[in-house]
Design brief:
alpha+beta; 2 domains; 7-stranded antiparallel sheet; 6-stranded antiparallel sheet; 4 helices; 13 strands; 22% helix; globular; disordered N terminus
Length: 276
């Protein structure tokens, strides 16, 4: 018991710089034991605070690796990319809402993209991420593509495609749909647009990666997913946003009316591939 108390006192002296605590025999006074325990408690608290600061520094560093620092938010921990890449999936592209850069141009040309894969899906205004493996699409042996939207800490919409024999754009087609998060987004359903390039509106292509069910005037337009990239002149309210791009999705289990503003706005759009 004496050796244990002396050892604890010695460790405390080294960590805290306390010399006088161990200057008397450990068994001479209960007061000295209490003082020692107090000092050790103080040291433990300081160490926990220091470790907490180190964890925050590491988290900030990881967020900054993707480009611009993430906005710190409270609540559940953000999704980690490595957790989304289970079962053989690999994220090769991630577009960020509101960063002012075209998601379509980033996907098709790589303009303004970052080559460093993000660590997490924590909300940020980082550049779009693009893996150069896209340029070698035909030789990779891609079997499946997953197109997905992420909002906060959850996946809010997805479509999985059969990508065998496709190129970097032709996989995005109704005839290739295997499954989705929407009950009416299947090969058996009809769409007036199912296209990565999207459509011209007032001379501009504002709606990219467009999966739309029906057009009948702004209030009757119904769809599932769209990347809204700019605000054309004389267009619908659902094309108008404070920042671009925006990743809009139906919040119900089927196509919904865009102009009723019931759609969701995702933080990210991501594309995954699987080769086996």
């Amino acid at each position: 018991m004496y050796k244990l108390k002396f050892f604890l006192c010695y460790i405390s002296m080294i960590l805290a710089g306390v010399k006088h605590v161990c200057s008397e025999e450990p068994y001479e006074s209960r007061y000295m034991e209490e003082r020692l325990l107090e000092k050790m408690t103080e040291i433990d608290i300081k160490m926990q605070i220091a470790l907490g600061k180190l964890d925050k520094m590491e988290e900030t560093k990881n967020r900054q690796r993707g480009g611009v620092s993430s906005l710190l938010t409270s609540g559940p921990r953000a999704l980690l990319v490595k957790d989304l890449e289970d079962d053989g999936w690999e994220m090769i592209f991630r577009a960020t809402a509101g960063n002012g850069q075209s998601a379509y141009e980033a996907w098709t040309t790589g303009v303004g993209t970052c080559v460093d894969k993000p660590i997490s899906m924590a909300r940020s205004y980082a550049s779009h991420y693009r893996n150069s493996i896209i340029l070698n699409w035909a030789n990779i042996g891609i079997k499946y593509v997953k197109y997905a939207y992420y909002d906060g800490t959850q996946e809010v919409a997805y479509v999985i495609f059969n990508a065998s024999g496709s190129d970097m754009n032709s996989w995005f087609d109704k005839t290739r749909v295997i499954s989705s998060s929407f009950s009416d987004l299947t090969t058996a359903n009809n769409f007036n647009y199912f296209s990565i390039p999207g459509e011209f509106i007032s001379g501009h292509r504002a709606r990219r990666f467009l999966i739309n069910k029906h057009y009948g005037g702004c209030d009757s337009d119904r769809g599932h997913l769209v990347v809204s990239e700019n605000e054309p002149i004389n267009t619908c309210n659902w094309d108008k946003h404070p920042t671009y791009p925006q990743f809009l999705y139906s919040k119900i289990n089927s196509a919904d009316y865009w102009n009723r503003r019931m759609f969701g706005r995702a933080d990210y759009m991501a594309i995954f591939i699987k080769t086996n």
